[in-house]
Amino acid sequence: MAKLNFDKIYNDYSRLVYWAAYRVVAQCETAEDVTQTVFERVLLNESKLARLNEPQLKSWLYRVATNLALDITRKGMRERLDAEPLSEEIPDESPTPEAEAMERNRTERIRAAIDSLDEAYRQVILLHYYSELTVREISECTGISEGTIKSRLVRARMLLADKLKDEVDLR
């Protein structure tokens, strides 16, 4: 029987799990809690998961994260997003307070625009850009055809561009 390499699974898929949960709960601390719970379940189901191939494992992780997040949402624990995701922030060596404030403002505007998208568009944007999944991987995880994923990405980008077109210097 194959041995499960927990560290590799965590390093490879923690972003996917985090953003799958975040997509549902839209609150960083809750998404972090879901991520921790998912990886606790990985340890509890080690023998079962060791038999899965990579796409099956990725799908299992995505589904567990989504289902746990939905359970939390159903219990009325949804909050507004307001912080960076797990281990995403790499501190700049010497940013000025003004530069930090401008970047924070820019990030908030982009997040608000993403948050205002319909669920189908928000999901593909978060999975593609924040979890860094390919169209094929998103399709495998969600069960939605690659063509639909591609068209949703194009439409989501157009909607975001329209929402942000009046913003100044989003670079």
Write the layout of secondary structure elements.
Blueprint: H1 6-25, H2 28-44, H3 46-49, H4 54-74, H5 97-115, H6 119-130, H7 135-142, H8 146-164
Helix content: over 70%
Could you tell me how far the N terminus lies from the C terminus, measured between alpha carbons in angstroms? Answer: 50 Å
Secondary-structure-based class equals mainly alpha
What's the mean pLDDT score?
Answer: 82
CATH topology of the largest domain: Rna Polymerase Sigma Factor, Chain: A
Number of domains: 2
Please report which band the strand proportion falls in: under 5%, 5-15%, 15-25%, 25-35%, 35-45% or over 45%: under 5%
What's the alpha carbon Rg, rounded to whole Å? 17 Å
Strands, total number: 0
Describe what you observe in this structure.
- The chain is mainly alpha-helical and 171 residues long.
- The protein has two domains: 6-74, Rna Polymerase Sigma Factor, Chain: A (Orthogonal Bundle), CATH 1.10.1740; 97-164, Arc Repressor Mutant, subunit A (Orthogonal Bundle), CATH 1.10.10.10.
- It is built from eight helices and no strands.
